[in-house]
Amino acid sequence: MPKSQNRDLSEERISLEREISTLESEKISLEEQINKYKKDLENYRAEIENTVNERMKLEKQIDDIKKQRPSIEFEDLANNLKRALASVQTTVTRKHGPEEAVEMPAGSEYIVDKFEVEIKSGIDLSQGVKLVQPAINELTPEALSTVRISFKSKPEFEIVKEQDSQ
């Protein structure tokens, strides 16, 4: 083989070896990227699984909450009604304006005459005595509690001085 041809083959061989080396480096880099993507994919799958499990747990909690019926202890009910009555009384005896509450002029004040509460509920004895709201499918107009409030004018009293009659 002539020298020029030998040299050409040698240069071609060197060029091919460089190309092989470059391709092997790219292959290693691509394999590293593939491994990284596989790990990311595994992490995403685990995250999705955790999210799905968390959602299922939350949905179960929501279902449990929907099944629960609100309840209140008798003492709390009495205290709430007492505060409500005091609030109503304050509202009808005072005029609310942009400033603080201002006394109403004489003769225009009212008082709560009657405050009647009729409570219709179930009773829960599992943790003390509590009133329990009926289930949604049990709510009918007849099963609803009522509050009746009657007002009357606040009586005005005048102190009259007796005059001596002589």
Strands, total number: 7
Strand content: 15-25%
- Cα-to-Cα separation, first versus last residue: 164 Å
Strand order of the largest sheet: 1-6-5
Overall SS class = alpha+beta
Low-confidence stretches: none
User: Describe the biggest sheet?
Assistant: 3 strands, antiparallel
How many helices? The count is 2
Q: Secondary-structure element sequence?
A: HEHEEEEEE
The number of distinct structural domains comes to 2
Question: What's the quick description here?
Answer:
The chain is α+β, with helices and mostly antiparallel strands and 166 residues long.
Topology (elements, then pairings):
Blueprint: H1 3-67, E1 71-73, H2 74-93, E2 94-95, E3 102-103, E4 110-118, E5 122-124, E6 130-132, E7 146-153
Antiparallel strand pairs: 1-6, 2-3, 4-7, 5-6
Features:
two-stranded antiparallel ribbon; 2 domains; alpha+beta; 166 residues
What does this structure look like?
The protein has two domains: 1-68; 69-153, no CATH class. It is rod-shaped. The strands form three sheets. Strands 1-6-5 form a three-stranded antiparallel beta sheet. Strands 2-3 form a two-stranded antiparallel sheet. The chain is built from two helices and seven strands. The longest helix has 65 residues, at 3-67. The protein is α+β, with helices and mostly antiparallel strands and 166 residues long.
